[in-house]
Amino acid sequence: MDIGVFGGSFNPIHIGHLIVAEEVYQQRRLSKVIFVPTGISPHKEERNLLDSFHRYQMVKYAIKDNEHFEVSDLEIKRAGKSYTIDTICALKDGYGKHHNLFLIMGTDMIIEISTWKDIDLLSRMCHFVVVNRFPMMPNGSNPSFPSQTSNLRCTEIFSPEKKAEIEQLKVTIPHIGISSTEIRERLQNGRSIRYLVPRCVEEYIRASNIYVKA
C-alpha cells in the first residue's frame, strides 16, 4: 500500500486540512491517509495548544465519513516531544517495510526540514509530498511553488535523486484562506466558524465549551 501520513496540531482541524488530505490522496493515488495529531511538537511551541484528547476527537469526527481517512494517536501517547522519525519508524514497524509511506507537508515545513531529527534516515524511510501552503499575498494572489525544488535551501542536504522525487511528488491546490489560529480567534470573539470547519467539529467545540474565553 501507499499510505499518506499527515501530521499536525489540528488545533482545531478545519476544511483546509481535509482538502489538502483529499487532494494528496487523489493526485498521488494513495491507499489511505493517516492523520497524526501532534503531542508535544519539537519544531514549534504553541501556547494555545488544546488538550490532545479534544484534538484527537475532533479529527476522528471530521474524517468519520471518509473511508480512506484514518486517525492515529501514536504521537499523543508518546511521552516527551514527538519527532517525525519516531512516528515513521512506528508506522513502518506496524505496516511492514513493503508498504510505502508518503509524508505530507507544507512548503513552510520542507524549508526547515534540515533541522529535523535524523533527517537522513527519515528521507530514506519515506517519500515527501510537499503541498503549496503560502500566505495570501497583499494583492490577494496565491503564489505557486518555486519553479524548481532546488530553489528551496533545505534540499542542499538531499541527493539529486531525492530532489527530483520531491519535485515529482509535489501537489498544488487552490489557496484556502483558513487557519486554525483564525478559527480560535473567531471563537474567542464570539464570531461564527460556520463553513470553516465540518459541522460535526463545530458542534463538538460548542458542546465541549473549548476555545472560548474563561
Number of domains: 1
Q: Fraction of residues in helices? A: 25-40%
Helix segment tally: 9
Structural classification: alpha/beta
CATH architecture: 3-Layer(aba) Sandwich
Order of helices and strands: EHEHEHHEHHEHHH
Which band does the percent of strand residues land in? 5-15%
CATH class: Alpha Beta
Uncertain runs are 134-151
Radius of gyration: 17 Å
**Averaging pLDDT over every residue, what do you get?**
87
* Outline type: globular
- What is the makeup of the main sheet? 5 strands, parallel
The tally of beta strands, per DSSP, is 5
- Termini separation (Å)? 46 Å
Order of strands, main sheet, comes to 3-2-1-4-5
Topology (SSEs and partners):
Elements lengths: L1 E7 L6 H13 L4 E6 L14 H11 L6 E3 L2 H4 L6 H12 L4 E7 H4 L8 H7 L1 E5 L28 H10 L10 H9 L10 H10 L6
Parallel strand pairs: 1-2, 1-4, 2-3, 4-5
Helix pairs in contact: 2-9, 4-6
EC number: 2.7.7.18
Organism: Candidatus Brocadia fulgida
GO molecular function: ATP binding; nicotinate-nucleotide adenylyltransferase activity
